[in-house]
Amino acid sequence: MNPIFNSSVYCQRRENLAKQVQSGIILFLGNNDAPMNYKSNCYRYRQDSNFLYFFGLAAAGLSAIIDIDENRTIIFGDDFTIDDIIWVGDQPAIATLAAQVGVSETKPTNELANYLNHNKHRKIHFIKPYRHDNQIQLSQLLHWPISELSNQFSIELTKAIVNLRAIKEQRELDEMEKACQLGYKMHTSVMQACKPGISEQFLMGLAEGISLQEGNGPSFQIILTQHGEIFHNLDHNVDLQKGRLLLMDAGAENSMHYCSDSTRTMPVGGQFTTRQQEIYEIVLKGNMTGIDMVRAGIAYRDVHFAVAEIVAQGLKDLGLMKGDIKEAVRLGAHALFFPHGLGHMIGLDVHDMENLGEDFVGYNDTYHRSDIFGTCNLRMARTLEPNMVITVEPGIYFIPKLIEMWKAEKHLIDFINYEKVMEYLDFGGIRIEDCVCVTETGHKVLGPHLPKGVTELQEMLGK
């Protein structure tokens, strides 16, 4: 079984949750195994992060309730039969697992429906299910059509979970540091192997292998591509070509399920061209300025806009943008080149708690999502607090279809020099990303220093 924290940690977390929700029954559905191409050949298992946070158990097929009114916590699950044991070996009883996380009461899975039905007159809190099997199970348990679940989920529970998980305990920060150390090994190994002629697939496999040697594998599907303008490009079917840029966005999940997420962009062959370095240094300035601005009390939306202005000014200096920079950013002209947000929370999830809804995680009653292209993709806008962990990941991308569309529409033509931009259609994209913890006095970048300055990066590539 996967390692867990001391049982008192989970008891305290559940107690804190019960104080915020106050009444009713809180229902948690753990994740089940997911068949890949037939029932017994499954994808690598990953427990639901909320279940991990409050119950710590990574076994499949579990569910749990916290009955606030009756002060009861119950884990539901089935002990392995001899048929199971023949294939996977003897396993701890559910009661044994539950005791490890401070829960003294367990019941078989089939008794969950009876418990909820018996208490159907009371408020049953649940979060939006993001997996189809859990949607079906929840529909059957609560006797609601699947289409109604998105209207019936508990906003009170959702906000309570966000309040608790957004602020990391020191033990969580320690685990994230370990995940970032593993991510460092993934990235530096690829940097040292980044040579013309080697395949993207080989480098992706190299990074994934390292993450599996010391942890639970990548924290998300590795993005490793010479088409950095495609944000989530998962194709790795070409060889590296000298003179192109290789973007690697990757992180590791450690044995305690905490995640890292870093991005570096490197010149294949070891040296940036003049044009590449010009764009790279704009992104680097945005990354470092964004990190320097991270502190408790500042709205991350303001950090995003400050970095967007750096990107726009840098592009103006190169003749790609023009006009008043603040007005250009206000209207979203920079989003032709930087159409995503500056970053997101990270923790047990690489996009922490995103299944609960970005508007609950990154926004609140003070900060509301914009409807302007680019800015609407900002995942994190709210005020930063000590022990939040966020990513800082500006980028500049030349996306041919988007450029051609805006040019044809003469969109924001007062701020964009389309004739100059057309010279960059084959450029690709650059992104630089680090994980940053908000501290009482400022910030701390997690993990070992991962080369990103032009000189140090080129030196690493030359090894």
The computed structural class is alpha+beta
Q: Which outline best applies?
A: globular
**Overall mean pLDDT score?**
96
**Named CATH architecture of the largest domain:** Alpha-Beta Complex
- Low-confidence segments: none
CATH topology of the largest domain: Creatine Amidinohydrolase
The domain count comes to 2
Main sheet, how many strands, which sense, barrel? 5 strands, mixed
CATH class of the largest domain: Alpha Beta
- The CATH superfamily label of the largest domain reads Creatinase/methionine aminopeptidase superfamily
Measured on Cα atoms, how large is the radius of gyration? 24 Å
Instruction: Figure out the total of helices.
Output: 17
Strand order of the largest sheet: 6-5-4-1-7
Q: Which percent bin holds the helix content?
A: 25-40%
β content, as a range?
5-15%
For the terminal residues, how far apart are their CA atoms?
Answer: 39 Å
Number of strands: 15
What are the key terms here?
alpha+beta; three-stranded antiparallel β-sheet; 463 residues; Creatine Amidinohydrolase, Chain A, domain 1; Creatine Amidinohydrolase; five-stranded mixed β-sheet; 2 domains; single chain
